[in-house]
Amino acid sequence: MAKVLVVEDSLGLQKAIISKLTQEGFEVIPSVASQEAMQKLEENPDTDFIWLDHYLLGEETGLDFITHVKGNEKFKHIPVFLVSNTATAEKIKTYMHLGIDKYYMKSNISLKEIIEDVKNLLEGNPK
Amino acid sequence: MNKKIKIIILIFVLVVISRFITISIINNIRSDISTNLISDYQKHEEALGEQVAHIVEAQVENLREKLLIIADNDFIKNSDPTLCKDALQGIYEVLDTKIGNLGRVGLDKKFYCSINSALVGVDATTLGTYIDDIFNDPEHKPVTSRIISPPGAGFAIAVHVPVFNDAQEFVGTIGGAIYLAELNETYLRNVSIGDTGYVILLDDDGTLLSHPQKELIGRNFFNDSDIRKTISTIDEVTSKVQEASDKGIPTTLQYDFMGSMKQATFVPIHISEERRWVVGVTLSLDEIQDDLVAIGIEDNLNKVTVVTGFFAALVPFLILIYLILSVFNVLGRVNRSLNKISTGDFSERIKLKGPKRDELVTLSNSFDKMAAELQSFNEDMQAKVQHKTEELSEKVAELEKTKLATLNILEDLEFEKDNLKEEKDKIDTIIKSIGDAVFVVDKDLKIILYNNIAAQLSGFSAEEAVGKYYKDVLKFISEENDKETDSFVMDALNKGTIAAMANHTVIVTKKGDRIPVSDSAAPIKNKDGQVIGCVVVFRDVSKEREVDRAKTEFVSLASHQLRTPLSAISWYAEMLMDGDAGELNKQQLEFLSEIYQGNKRMVALVNALLNVSRIDLGTFAVEPIPTKIVEIAESVIKELQPQIETKKQKLKTDFDDLPEMNLDVNLTRIIFQNLISNAVKYTPDEGTVTVKVKKKDEQVVITVSDTGYGIPKEQQERIFQKLFRADNVREKEADGTGLGLYIVKAILDNSGGDINFVSEENKGTTFTATLPITGMAKKDGTKGLS
Predict the structure, then answer these.
(1) Could you tell me the strand order of the sheet in which B754-760 lies?
(2) Which end is more exposed in chain B, N or C (fewer Cβ atoms within 10 Å of the end residue's Cβ)?
(3) Which site among B571, B602, B609, B617 would you substitute to test the A interface, given the most A Cβ atoms closer than 10 Å to its Cβ?
(4) Model confidence over B696-715: pLDDT tens digits?
């Protein structure tokens, strides 16, 4: 069972994501802030995938979190999807530079589509 | 004593006495004639002298008047040497009679412009004291110089008049010269009086301004050693000259010039209130004597003397008495005639009749001959005087004409100048009133105009800026990398088109502060279309940049905040429809589907609004990368396939096999997405939508046509307006933002493309968008469109 870390500060959305992922057979570790997510990652070094939002609770954003992850030898191999409504071209570019695998704008995409892509990626069959 | 002897003695005594009387009378007559003749010559010398004086006075006066007119010219008052030079040259060229060495002296007493380039920069006081005189005089009255020798010209007399500016402050002088050589040649040298007469001209301290011997011009008549050698009574002569000059009346004297007697008449010339020059008219006395001999008067008078003696010895007393009475009678007539002649009646004749041998008749005839000679001499003199007077009148008339012509030209100049001034005032006022900083550079990039706002903004005053290379004063750099960003000035100058400042330009002030600025440079062209400079306008955009940032932040935040609940609705509806919360009946599914679709439209609207705000802010970027345009078209069509199928429409495509071109993928997608989805949306079921991408010349042409509702003719011109939707489709399709075509047009306008359309209601519409074959032009910006 694949383990997914969901870093999303909006509890309403987080609930939907967790619900859908669980239904699709994933084990979900929820988190709302960058530091908390790092901590959960340390507790779950076997995490297979990270679902990340840009704006998070607390001072740090998704950019800080991805910097921590990609700067850490233990976690830098874990694939990351950015699922956010903060769609400025500049930020997306920065995320791409930092090593995320895909970017989705929440309002333009269905959960089903994202999860299809996650499955494909984890099965070594990215779209 | 013998009575006879007594009578003889008596007769002898009477004869002797009568002879003495006769001789005395004849001498008297000779003296009278001579005196009258000399005084006659003197009168003519005086008349001639006065005419010469008039000519010279008129010359000086005319020069002074012309100068006074020129001094009132605004360009002459103006202290700009270039304008002054052009104005002088212009005036000079229209003068009938040229003014020599026409030049303007500034307050530093130096010539700063002149038609004689050798004069420019010359300290005028080195030419004579007259400049100091006019400067020191509290009223700055016009001055006439003594003889001067300006550089690049011969001896001359200069006249300077004051120049006052508009505030009636004395700002220097303008002057011109009369060349003595010219005066000499034209007016004085050729004046002839008899065979030996000539004219000289002296200034008030005795310097010779004109003399038939040219080498004497410029020497001092009073103390030049060469002149003193030739005139033994020079002191007497100079005192007469000074008397004429000091008292302002004509004087005459006779003097010995190298052994020959001369008669000279000195006539004053009024050059100014204080100064008088003198014209001298000189004639040799020998010539006057020769005239007497020439007309035979001397010879005949001598004969009279001899004849009377001879008769006295022979003729009886009565004859003697008769003779004496006759002689008296004739001499009386001669004397009366002489008196008449001396009063100017040259037509007087004695006309004594009798045998030719009668000596008195001979005397009378000789007298008549002399009178006739005198009359013809007088007439000749009068003719000469008249000729000179006519010449003078012509001169005066010519001077008048010149003056008029000058006045006309000056009037024209004045009119032009008024126009220019008005234009200049207008421009000055406009530039001053402009709330933006403005400066103008010439083609050498030197600042020639600089307004107050530019001074306030940059911290450099106009004095510090004008005349400088603009980069030494105004530093425009990019706030991002500190590199110079002033290529817009060079662009305006080199390309001759308006060039905008790059984004994020800041100006470095005198204090070193950085102020964000924005605006443009525009070329200034002359009437031949050549770029002669450029005007740069810029303004402080600190506040705008702040507001801009705040707006962008707000829009970004607002869109984020809107998108989050929309995402929640979308995802939960999706899960419900997927049956994640249990099976739904058909009606529940239908209602949920409506919520889901409505939400999707809401998302599209938020996206469109965000794009519009970025377009309006000018912050959207165009970032082209090599892309195949047809692939984007196909991908959009694939996305829209469900709608096309739902409406059972026929879709036709015609794509050329085009190579990769530089396209911003997002923007190109937006273009196709809007055009094709509009065609599908506004075409009824079973209609046809055709999409073509073809190469034509140097362009790629995207054509999207449909067989749909069309756009009503009266609303066609508003179709690209923001939030506009045509009436016919608003009734049929509630769905639609009125933003799609506005965004498409903005994208094409900002990337080097274009769009237009043809449409007929209920028949269909064809949109034709074009892009350069090379692709989209890059545009810097902070945000892309989504």
Answers:
(1) B650-655, B688-696, B699-706, B764-772, B754-760
(2) N
(3) B571
(4) 988 999 999 999 999 999 99
